[in-house]
Fold this sequence. Notes:
This protein is an alpha/beta fold. The protein has helices at residues 6-22, 44-49, 60-70, 87-90, 103-111, 137-143, 165-177, 191-196, 206-209, and strands spanning 31-35, 54-57, 75-78, 96-100, 117-120, 148-152, 182-184, 201-204.
Amino acid sequence: MAQLTAARVRANLDRVRERIAAAGRDPGEVEILAAVKYVPVDEVGALAEGGITVVGENRAQDLAEKQDRFGDAFTWDFIGALQSRKVRDVAPRVRLIHSVASDSVLAQLEQHPAGEVLIQVNLAGEESKAGIEPDMLGDFIERCPVPVGGLMTMPPAVERAEDNRRHFARLAELAGEHGLARLSMGTTQDFEVAVQEGATIVRLGSVLYG
Length: 210
């Protein structure tokens, strides 16, 4: 990834908003979260200068380092796989944890509460990915000791974004069934389909930085 500049980030952000509008949604209704896993700490400031307001980090240690330096510049979310032993480090630092998906994490949230979480749902049944099975979702939500604001999913990597439409539509159905407002779904490969199916947060990386 070439060194980021505020001008490039702003131009890319404008193009993403145009694509959301072309997909039939008001860009103001869809939160654009910049995934910063591969953004060096010295370049995070260019995101703020380029108009990014929400960032998501995958690693607890990197979250702490970047937030300690740029804390007030962004709203911070955690989007990576969450190990139960890291809950105490992550929970007080973020607005949302997007990836709650295990009983061990629920146990730690009881001791180290987060403000709000999203439940990760494994809609494609991929063994390599975390996530609650759809038929177990209601029970899992009931047992969560902190507020559940919505759902998140990471569907399979596909050649055609359209192939993931059914997963996004199903997540929206599940959110509706459980009265949940937030839908974190869609990445660079398929965010336009995700917003058509009701995404309220899209997690974007290379489309913002390239």
